[in-house]
Amino acid sequence: MSRLLIRLIGLILIFIGLYFFGQNIIFVSGYYSYFYRTLPATASVFATMIGVFALVFFRRETGNLGWIFLGIGIVLVFLSGGVILKPTSLWDFIISFAALASGYKLLNEGRINF
């Protein structure tokens, strides 16, 4: 098979894996009566925006700073209580993880070693 087709199959497998993982994750926002309860949610949005902006536009200048801001944003999302993780079956987990791993392997190396 051609390399383009193999990489396309890998990308499709990654999206299938993300779809199965994403079925059990719910992002919510809520109404808080006190202003200080929304600070982690606001800070997570700003940190994520800064991290993505730094990684996309200033990759050489910022180095790892974009990844640090992105990590802080992800941690603050969980601290703000804006993520609900629904229970998942073992079968769904195995399918999604296998699709992600094999898609990544196909995308990077072009083959899967069993």
Q: CA-to-CA gap between the ends?
A: 18 Å
Shape descriptor: flat
Order of strands in the sheet with the most strands?
Answer: 1-2
Beta-strand residue percentage: 5-15%
Overall average residue pLDDT: 79
Q: How many beta-strand elements?
A: 2
- The percent of residues in helical segments reads 55-70%
Coarse structural class: mainly alpha
How many domain modules? 2
- SSE string, helix = H, strand = E? HEHHHEH
Main pleated sheet: 2 strands, antiparallel
**Residue runs with pLDDT of under 50 for 5 or more positions:** none
Blueprint of the fold:
Elements: H1 3-22, E1 25-27, H2 39-57, H3 59-62, H4 65-79, E2 83-85, H5 90-108
Helix pairs in contact: 1-5, 2-4
How would you explain this protein's 3D organization?
- The protein has 114 residues and is mainly α.
- The protein folds into 2 domains: 1-24 and 86-114; 31-85.
- It is built from 5 helices and 2 strands.
- It has a two-stranded antiparallel ribbon.
- α1 (3-22) runs antiparallel to α5.
- The longest helix has 20 residues, at 3-22.
